[in-house]
Design brief:
Blueprint lengths: L2 H6 L13 H15 L2 E2 H8 L3 H13 L3 E6 L8 E5 L1 H13 L8 E2 H11 L7 H7 L10 H10 L2 E5 L6 H13 L4 E4 L1 E4 L2 E4 L21 E4 L3 E4 L11 E2 L6 E2 L2 H4 L4 E4 L9 H14 L1 E5 L5 E5 L3 E6 L3 H4 L2 H5 L3 E4 L5 H14 L6 H13 L9 H16 L7 H11 L9
């Protein structure tokens, strides 16, 4: 753990050292007691994630204000085993707290600490060419392909993958995501507070906790996660890139790019989203340049957060038809994932035969190339060998015969696979 991030993870030793308003914690405690009924101090500590000494100071104050009471003790751990019950006056205060927000969970951390934490943890150890090659070793690509994507991974800025469909762009992006997620873990809070408002950062679909005993004397509001990876496709909407305020729960959910901070954000099928590419351009042109994103609360207050993640765009469309030069200039590395030539296509086909237990037949392969590509003008795609051979296997299984590769089976598989099959000439 670096000295910088370690300084942020020191837990408050007393109420005076608490870095957020005491009222936020009081509201969380009252809402929890109102919702769950009689609750032990251990349970409160588990939910709020503050040191017991700090919680106990607050609970003593709530007892003095007659907002909570202690009907009994549940063990021999002193005040830690006390059972707390909310009073009628406490219930009235809890209702007021619910009017402000219904958030019940770990106490948030202040925005400035989150900002420092992301900035200090953004730079990861560099990935070696060997690791990049290993990550894409399950793909058959040109031998020097790793040199195109490796620098983008290490820079942690942006990467644009483009080219015709069916040649592995999404699979390459997913391999990059595995490299990013497998890097040094990152410390993140569950929620953030600003101007009395709460922004929930944690997303169970994005954040994967690193299991194991946490280091001693660490503020448990911070959890160590694998580097976050956010993957979106055609479902991405412009509103997903801004704070979302839940009018019922009355707290904010962090936008996708904020959840991806310190990790990777993949926009797959770029250009097919439920928003125009120019809208994304206008939204992100400044963050891509400055590494700072800006948001606005419902109160009108604006604030900034780091925009520090590897942004990966993947598209089947012509980049020049999607965005202008100003946007492309802000994407550091552009990589074309082109269709394979016949030599590479042969390697892919032979490899897939081996994986699917189909005896390779050179004459059948040459027939496949001549009849379904050369004579039809169809372009080679890296995905075709896998899909056509799966069709051949399915036909063999259906007829109860051993897997084999024949021109007739290739014709049958291709006629079922291609949307507009062109009859091969003989």
């Amino acid at each position: 753990m670096s000295q910088n991030i370690g300084s942020l993870l020191i837990p408050p030793a007393s109420l005076e050292e608490l870095d957020i308003p005491q009222g936020i914690v009081v509201d969380i405690i009252l809402r929890l007691l109102f919702t769950e009924g009689d609750t032990t101090a251990i349970r409160l500590e588990e939910v709020v994630r503050l040191p017991f000494k700090v919680l106990d100071e607050i609970l003593v104050h709530l007892q003095q204000e007659h907002l909570v009471e202690v009907p009994r003790s549940t063990g021999r751990l002193g005040r830690r085993s006390y059972l707390y019950s909310i009073t009628d006056e406490g219930k009235a205060r809890a209702r007021d707290a619910f009017e402000r927000t219904q958030y019940i969970g770990p106490a948030p951390v202040p925005l400035d600490k989150y900002t420092k934490a992301i900035s200090w943890q953004y730079r990861r150890e560099a990935v070696s060419p060997e690791r990049v090659q290993e990550a894409i070793s399950h793909l058959i690509l040109p031998s020097d392909f790793h040199r195109h994507i490796g620098p983008a991974i290490n820079s942690g800025r942006s990467l644009f993958l483009y080219g015709p469909p069916g040649n592995g762009k999404t699979t390459i992006a997913q391999a990059i995501a595995m490299l990013v997620a497998g890097a040094e873990p990152i410390w993140l809070p569950h929620a953030i507070t600003l101007a009395g408002q709460i922004i929930q950062l944690y997303d169970q679909l994005v954040h994967r906790e690193v299991k194991g005993e946490p280091p001693a004397d660490v503020d448990v509001r911070w959890i160590q996660y694998r580097r976050p990876v956010v993957i979106t496709g055609g479902e991405l909407k412009l509103e997903s890139l801004d704070l979302r305020f839940d009018p019922i729960a009355k707290y904010y959910e962090a936008p996708l790019q904020m959840k991806a901070n310190g990790g990777m954000f993949l926009i797959d099928d770029f250009g097919r989203q439920q928003m125009r590419p120019i809208d994304l351009l206008n939204r992100w042109i400044v963050p891509l340049e400055t590494e700072i994103d800006y948001f606005r609360l419902q109160t009108g207050q604006t604030f900034q957060v780091p925009f520090k993640q590897l942004i990966v765009f993947s598209t089947n469309l012509d980049p020049m038809d999607l965005v202008d030069d100003a946007f492309l200039r802000r994407i550091q590395i552009k990589v074309e994932v082109s269709s394979p030539d016949e030599k590479l296509f042969y390697r892919i086909f032979a490899t897939m035969c081996q994986q699917l237990s189909v005896p390779f037949d050179r004459d059948a392969f040459v027939y496949f190339l001549q009849e379904w590509y050369a004579k039809t003008g169809r372009k080679l795609q890296a995905v075709h060998p896998r899909d056509i051979l799966k069709g051949v296997v399915a036909l063999c299984e259906y007829s109860g015969t051993p897997n084999q590769l024949t021109p007739h089976l290739i014709d049958e598989a291709c006629q079922s696979y291609f949307v507009r099959p062109q009859s091969p000439s003989r």
